[in-house]
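# nightly structure sweep
# worker-07 picked up a monomer target from the shared queue
# config: single-sequence mode, recycle default, output format = structure tokens
# input follows
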Amino acid sequence: MLGGRCRMSRFTVLLLNTILASCGGLWLRMVDGQSVCGIRQTKNESVVDGEQIGPGEWPWHVGVYWWKGSKLNPPDRVCEGALVDREGWILTASNCLKSSEGDLLDMKGMIVHVGLLDLALIRLKVYDEWEGMPICMTDGVEDFEKIYGRSVYVLQQSHRHRLGGFEIVKLQLEREVVCYGPNLAVKARSVSDSNIKLKTKDTKYHSTARGTPLYVKSPGGWTLLGISNKIQTAIPGTLCQPGDYESFLNVNLAPVSVWFSNERENDGIESVETSTE
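# output follows
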């Protein structure tokens, strides 16, 4: 069973590899009065590059689908994202929620972060008894000095497995991205005030630029580092070409944390009607 499905007008949000009975999510447990986050449902904590994921292992990972016409036709998967709290907020990239003409898709409950990065929040209406397991987020400050050289992870739809599904892709977060030309190598900073760049050449990663979350394992639980944004272009002044690297929006910024907190506290935001099946 792939997961829980929350339906809405013209949209389906599928919380991938989760428990159907709870519409995609583990029941959230409390530790010392605080909500827990970033806890995978698995007996084996090892994360293997290229391994297909099983039900419940990444309960915060989300797929967003859109019906262009009749619901008798299959929908398009337009975005991925991450469940970022137990109240039903999903963080993704706003560019994948736009039509080919550049207009936002007609969806109640969607908040777009205009003027800062390319982020969007989708709020789902969830049952009072439903408490999904969200990914952990920082308070707007991430000490990248402590995680340079470590492995980071994305989940992507598998092109290699016969039955499809999603697989784990391991990438390395280095201090610099190195791009190679015929006669020289050029370095570019991997982390800036807006983006995290990762080398993807010669890895299993295939770019979608559709809000794919970037995860790192932290002592307090799995943590969201970034959200993939628009299709990449060459880095000006370097030999870095699309396909050599992938850029993720850095969500570990104080303005992002403030915006997210303010929007969650806005009681006037209309949530999206959902149901389970």
